[in-house]
Specification:
alpha+beta, D-Maltodextrin-Binding Protein, domain 2, Dipeptide-binding Protein, domain 1, 3 domains, seven-stranded mixed beta sheet, four-stranded antiparallel beta sheet, 26 strands
Length: about 525
């Protein structure tokens, strides 16, 4: 599964880079980004510019895009996370919490400006939280995180008062949400406004240009930033989807940093021209079932037993090159998770067969289970360019087929939620507070796109969200892990390590932070990074 770079580069490098990337022509010199008179990015000498092979992007609005690096570089929240994942003050100079009235009072930093030079004020904060709590047209997965906010007011331009309807243990985490500029976005459709592709924030880097044809977003350090100005002057964020392309970009000098799958990352180990920087993540991969489809509405009772037929350790060893762990709970790597009593599905084909029999499934002449005249056949869509997910899905399908279940893997370029597929090879993470899964798993919550519903899970996630005592919260989340494993919506397969590769001259990456989905969060301390070519 390891990439033969010499052969791969000879065959594909010129084609891939010329078709989809900037700096076509194979030059490994890295030049500075300036703007020409038309506002486009001009490549000449990138001596202090970080070229990052990132993810495909469609929007840089922090409310709509919570899974990528770029919004966190451009926007700031009232709070931010430190290296340990603890919320600390950011745009807020300080805050107080009044327990009897469930009220947070934030005092904002002085002199903060938007990237266009306008003053940042409390009105911007009120405006952003009004969108999150009141805009019924908002199409965002995170609105359930803010449902306990009763009102947001600004007594003056430097003070914000947020009152809750009930205690929410994760609320400080959700105050890390990037604030939008009222003067640029008020009256616009938040879902479709042009601002989403030309953002203006208060953060460490300013948006310069988005060359969609070349797949390149350019950012420049915010020299008026209210905290430490980054050492690296510019970032070129290349929007890359294909995993092999990222590896080729590093090998050819077209990128300085990339998150790679474990097998591609392994090919750089021991090479003095590169560094392998390995993070812990909370990022799981699993077979996520779509309960909007008739098959799972009828057969949802038979999801959990599929775990018995999948050798997860072999998938970790092979597809992940040993850089990960088998999964039994969506929050098993979280400080409030990890209840081993939820690990109820060992790889055991005899147990699988006996449990299938109890559920009323019998094998037909083809060796495939049937029940009520219907085969155990379902479809899972996987994006064709995500090699690691394709490999995971195919191995799961092969193991399930051998056990008598027909999981059909359908490769798609883009997820199609209207075609009737029975699920997809999913990935999610709760790297901070486990309440992040409230929106995914609670019935009709904003991020519950697969329409999973479990009354016990609803009860426990609600209880954990509103529990003040940390020890009791851990107990509740342990109960959630057990309840979810007994009636899951996702066949959890593995948690991935975050395998980054950089050029040798990039310093300062800090592996203290547990990273999120797609190993997002690597740039949490980018202001401390240095680049020496």
């Amino acid at each position: 599964m390891k990439l033969n770079f010499k052969k791969a580069i000879a065959i594909t490098l010129s084609t891939i880079l010329c078709a989809g990337l900037t700096a076509c022509g194979g030059s490994s010199t890295t030049p500075t980004v300036t703007n020409d008179e038309k506002g486009k990015t001009d490549l000449s000498n990138l001596s202090n510019t970080l070229v990052y092979a990132g993810e495909a992007e469609s929007t840089i609005n922090p409310i709509l895009n919570t899974h990528d690096e770029v919004p966190d570089l451009i926007f700031s929240g009232l709070m931010k996370y430190d290296g340990d994942g603890t919320p600390i003050c950011d745009l807020a100079e300080s805050y107080e919490y009044d327990e009897p009235t469930l009220t947070y009072t934030f005092v904002l930093k002085e002199g903060v400006k938007w990237h266009d030079g306008e003053a940042f004020t409390a009105d911007d904060v009120v405006y952003t939280y009004d969108i999150l709590t009141s805009d019924e047209s908002l199409s965002a997965s995170i609105t359930s995180n803010y449902e306990d906010i009763a009102r947001v007011t600004a007594p003056d331009e430097k003070t914000v008062v947020i009152t809750l309807s009930k205690f929410n243990a994760a609320m400080l985490n959700y105050f890390t949400m990037g604030i939008l500029p009222k003067h640029l976005t008020e009256g616009e459709d938040i879902n479709t406004m042009s601002f989403n592709q030309t953002p203006v924030g208060t953060g460490r880097y300013k948006f310069v240009d988005w060359d969609t044809a070349g797949g390149m977003i350019t950012l420049a350090a915010n020299t008026d930033y209210y905290d430490k100005v980054p050492n690296i002057e510019r970032i070129i964020y290349k929007t890359v989807s294909v995993e092999s392309t990222k590896a080729l970009m590093l090998q050819s000098g077209e990128a300085d940093l990339a998150w790679l799958n474990a097998n591609y990352a392994e090919t750089f180990r021991g090479n003095d021209d590169y560094k392998n920087i390995d993070f812990t993540t909370a990022d799981y991969r699993g077979i996520s079932m779509d309960f909007k489809t008739e098959f799972w509405q009828k057969n949802g009772d038979s999801i959990g037993v599929l775990n018995y037929a999948i050798d997860k350790n072999s998938i970790v060893a092979g597809v992940l090159n040993g850089r990960g762990v088998s999964a039994y709970s969506p929050i098993q790597l979280n400080a409030l998770g990890g209840n081993k009593e939820a690990d109820i599905y060992p790889y055991n084909l005899d147990k699988f067969a006996s449990e299938m029999e109890k559920l009323g499934w019998t094998k037909n002449s083809e060796g495939i289970y049937e029940r009520n005249g219907e085969k155990f056949h379902f479809t899972i869509q996987v994006r064709d360019y995500e090699e690691e997910r394709v490999d995971i899905a195919n191995l799961c399908a092969n193991q399930l087929k051998a056990a008598g279940v027909d999981m059909e893997v359908v490769l798609v370029t883009k997820f199609d939620w209207t075609a009737g597929y029975n699920g997809f090879l999913s990935g999610y993470a709760a790297q901070f507070d486990p309440d992040a899964f409230y929106s995914n798993f609670v019935t009709d919550a904003s991020g519950n796109t697969m329409k999973y519903s479990n009354a016990k899970v609803d009860e426990l996630l609600n209880a954990a969200r509103h529990e003040k005592d940390a020890d009791k919260r851990k107990e509740i989340y342990g109960e959630f892990e057990k309840a979810y494993s007994e009636m899951p919506g996702v066949v959890l397969v593995a948690f991935l390590d975050g395998n980054y590769v950089s050029i040798a001259g990039l310093d300062g990456l800090d592996t203290t932070r547990i990273l999120g989905h797609h190993a997002v969060g690597v740039m949490w301390n980018i202001e401390e990074w240095t680049l020496n070519r």
